[in-house]
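Before we proceed, please read the two lines closing this message. Tell me what the token row says about the fold.
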Amino acid sequence: MAGLSAVDRSVVDQPAVDAHGFRTDGGVLDAIAGDLAGLVGRGVRVVLVSSGAVAHGRLLLHKQGITTGTVEHTQAAAALGQPVLMSRWVTALAKHGVRAGQVLVTADDFEHRVRYVSGNRRLEILLEAGCIAVVNENDSVAFDRMRLGDNDRLSALVARSLGADALLMLSVAAGLEDDSGRVIAEVTEPNDAARFLRSDVSDAGTGGMATKLDAAALATDAGCVTVIAGGHEPGVVRRVMAGELVGTVFRAAGDGGDNARRRWIGAAARVEGTVYIDRGAVRALRETGASLLPIGVVRIDGRFDADAAVDIAGPDGAAFARGLAALSSTDMRRTAGMTSDEIQRVLGVGFAAPSVHRDNLVIFSPTHPDTPRGDPPPADTAATHRPGHTEPSP
């Protein structure tokens, strides 16, 4: 892994509690802090994603005789535990002369474009100042329906948003293991590696090896080399970043060339509907980089306004792209299967926008973990549709 020795920016995912909810040994945190400080000293910009606030807070609540079980209990535990979690990292990093900046995020910070851009700039300022940004989900205000899900996914989203070169996810496991229990050194296709999964979701968090594989797929799709390694391995961060084969490495699948807007569309934007298209439109999007025109649209699922994020699926029902709708779901249904001339006769002269413009469109790589599967659209939904007919992109 010689390429990792030349990284410019990296994201490290390290929980501050073990799989059973107990505090990670202070010596382990100190060792990891030393490795992270070494990266900063080399000029690498480092983001640390660290969970454990809820687990720390629950321990404090239990000492007061309070049994946790409701959403409000979890939020209160997070409010109590986050200062403890942050204090541990501030102390550990200060021993090596590095400052830590706390960054708490929610799903809205990734799903809404303005907040996404602002949050990304906030991280950049901390990194420019030579600090390590310590990121965690703000569980004190999060509800299940608004959660990011787990810190592995969070670390991948942060890596994508920053255009990071490397993502290192530290785990209680030494890496992804094969059926005989040996660590697999390298994986080229994260989705294929799912066959090695076992039930290993931790007691303290929501993650496990399954979420790490999903995160690896999300990060490698954006051109970010990803490593899963044991957090208790001596010098693990330093050794991985020096190019040593430790744990399991997932090679980058994408080229990392997408701009920040496309990275947001592909991974973070909240999807509000699905647009089903014909085979000709699939070819036009995949092979020529065209915009999606109304004539290629077969069916719309969901209700959404213009500028909403939508998945785009072919005749097999599988989403292969995501984009920002140029039309509302109402107008997209009205114009499905129509040529530009027909649209202008129905909706008025000058109304000839594509359904999704190519500048706001991302084609998934084969490793993308957010590719949902669905049922093929019924044949009777395509009554006004001309199969295979496409128009040049505007």
The chain is about 35% helix and 20% strand.
